[in-house]
Write a structure and sequence with these properties.
single chain; alpha+beta; rod-shaped; binds zinc ion; transmembrane
Length: 74
């Protein structure tokens, strides 16, 4: 899963990364841009990307098997 922090004070959001790194980036952004404020904002969690990547080899293997079966029947 990928995590991204969105700043509550401006339009800034961190890149997609691990939970701990996203938090570090958010804290660093607050220290840089909003030094008087307590770090806040919201976290976004992306579940789709890693699953889509892990599904692709399965689809490839299934298609390959279908091709082998189809070629054997001739
Ligand atoms: Zn900000």
């Amino acid at each position: 899963m990928a995590y991204r922090y969105r700043c509550g004070e401006c339009g800034f959001s961190t890149r997609w990364t691990t939970e701990s790194e996203a938090e570090d980036l958010s804290v660093a952004h607050y220290a840089d841009r909003h030094p008087r404020l307590v770090p806040g904002g919201s976290v976004e969690i992306n579940r789709k990307n890693p699953e889509a990547v892990s599904c692709l080899p399965m689809i490839g293997i299934t298609l390959l098997l279908l091709l082998i079966i189809a070629s054997c029947r001739r």
